[in-house]
């Protein structure tokens, strides 16, 4: 045994050192570089003189190296983006513009119909705003026939499809009430004349208020006037000329009025009739010279009652001879444009019109401003008090323009134990057998 104090020869120490170096090399070769500790990697890096590669260190609280690294990153300036210059477009561009394909016939018709529906809705809103859905003096419920907008739109669609209802048509509403059907057809399809006659004076005043408010709408300032309302009893008319389409909610018409109404229609030239009575009453009972075409179901505003609307057309051959002793001989003449003629000098023979409708046609031919002026003067002079002599004279002149025979509403219905006031007239037509004695 060798003691630690014994001296070892230099050759032995060199041998041991070389052996240790060989062992270190073998260990370094056998272990992969991933297994090197961080301290050895740092020593090797310093020996080689290479810089420490950038490593994304997870930030930790109290780590000064991370703080320094953050500051160094913040000092770095971002790289500027190089703007690429776009070449100006040449005269002959390779881009092909999109083609504007025209709408199909069905699509263009649907678009036009949607705009018309918006105008109709606006008119109904205006009427509801000024006079309500039913108007004043509507305690009788559905007797006034204030039809809903959607229901009457179905009536208009049927007329346009089957009854030649177009812009050249002349529409008459017997018992017009607030005038909703007249305003509707003045927009869709936009008839030439839309005329309404009403027996009750209060509802006639309401229709004139609605006419004024509709004419004052912004969209109607450039349109011609084609709507007018008159007050009177339809039994006082000789014919229904010159109207082409006659509409009436005649559910509440008394039988004697329907009988006289049939006689007047048979003496007229109107080819189409719209009624709420079935063919059994219209053709068999009241003897209208028409034949049935079709029917649709409608609903009434307020009462929500359901009624069937029937469409009729005149027979091809004339049923009765025309006897016209009550009207003057009026010949058809060419229509004169109101812009080219003084409104006060428009002749009475402008159209072949029955006298009961003549004053309304004259007011329509004055134009939109003339209709508005007539309505304002009527309400200002007929209904206001404290008038001057000139105003009274003017109101008397206006009263002559609207001639009608006033008849009490009770005279249309039979009173128990009494004879109706109209029975004497109806007896001449042979419809009723009045008991005498």
What's a quick, concise take on this entry?
The protein has 437 residues and is α/β, with parallel strands linked by helices. It has helices spanning 10-30, 38-48, 64-75, 105-131, 149-162, 180-187, 201-215, 255-266, 279-285, 355-364, 367-382, 389-401, 423-429; strands spanning 170-174, 193-198, 227-231, 245-248, 272-275, 290-299, 306-314.
Please provide a written account of the structure:
The longest helix is centred in the first third of the chain and has 27 residues, at 105-131. The protein is elongated, with a radius of gyration of 48 Å. It has a domain at 112-318: Vaccinia Virus protein VP39 (Rossmann fold, 3-Layer(aba) Sandwich). 40% of the residues lie in helices and 10% in strands. It has 437 residues and is of the alpha/beta class. The relative contact order is 0.09. The N and C termini lie far apart (174 Å). A seven-stranded mixed sheet has the order 3-2-1-4-5-7-6, with helices on both faces.
């Amino acid at each position: 045994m060798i003691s630690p104090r014994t001296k070892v020869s230099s050759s032995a120490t060199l041998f041991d050192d070389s052996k240790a170096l060989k062992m270190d090399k073998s260990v370094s070769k056998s272990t992969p570089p991933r297994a090197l500790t961080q301290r050895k990697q740092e020593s090797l890096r310093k020996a080689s003189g290479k810089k420490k590669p950038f490593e994304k260190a997870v930030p930790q609280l109290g780590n000064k190296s991370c703080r320094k690294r953050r500051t160094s990153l913040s000092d770095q300036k971002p790289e500027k983006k190089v703007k690429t210059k776009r070449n100006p477009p040449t005269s002959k561009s390779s881009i092909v513009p999109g083609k504007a394909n025209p709408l199909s016939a069905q699509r263009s018709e649907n678009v036009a119909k949607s705009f018309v529906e918006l105008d109709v809705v606006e008119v109904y809103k205006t009427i509801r705003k000024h006079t309500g859905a039913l108007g004043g003096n509507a305690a009788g419920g559905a007797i006034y026939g204030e039809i809903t907008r959607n229901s009457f739109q179905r009536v208009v669609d049927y007329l346009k499809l089957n009854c030649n209802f177009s812009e050249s048509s002349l529409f008459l509403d017997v018992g017009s009430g607030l005038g909703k059907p007249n305003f509707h057809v003045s927009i869709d399809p936009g008839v030439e004349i839309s005329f309404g006659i009403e027996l009750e004076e209060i509802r006639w005043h309401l229709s004139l208020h609605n006419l004024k408010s509709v004419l004052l709408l912004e969209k109607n300032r450039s349109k011609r006037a084609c709507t007018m309302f008159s007050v009177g009893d339809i039994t006082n008319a000789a014919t229904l000329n010159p109207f082409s389409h006659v509409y009436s909610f005649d559910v509440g018409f008394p039988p004697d009025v329907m009988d006289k109404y049939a006689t007047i229609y048979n003496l007229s030239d109107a080819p189409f009739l719209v009624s709420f009575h079935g063919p059994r009453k219209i053709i068999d009972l009241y003897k209208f010279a028409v034949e049935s075409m079709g029917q649709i179901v409608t609903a009434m505003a307020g009462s929500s009652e359901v009624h069937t609307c029937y469409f009729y057309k005149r027979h091809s051959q004339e049923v009765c001879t025309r006897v016209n002793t009550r009207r003057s001989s009026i010949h058809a003449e060419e229509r004169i444009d109101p812009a080219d003629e003084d409104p006060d000098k428009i002749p009475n023979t402008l159209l072949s019109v029955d006298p009961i409708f003549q004053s309304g046609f004259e007011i329509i031919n004055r134009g939109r401003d003339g209709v508005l002026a007539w309505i304002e003067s009527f309400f200002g002079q007929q209904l206001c008090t404290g008038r001057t002599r000139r105003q009274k004279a003017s109101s008397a002149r206006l009263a002559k323009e609207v001639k009608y025979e006033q008849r009490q509403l009770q005279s249309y219905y039979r009173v128990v134990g009494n004879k109706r006031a109209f029975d004497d007239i109806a007896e001449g037509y042979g419809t009723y057998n009045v008991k005498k004695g």
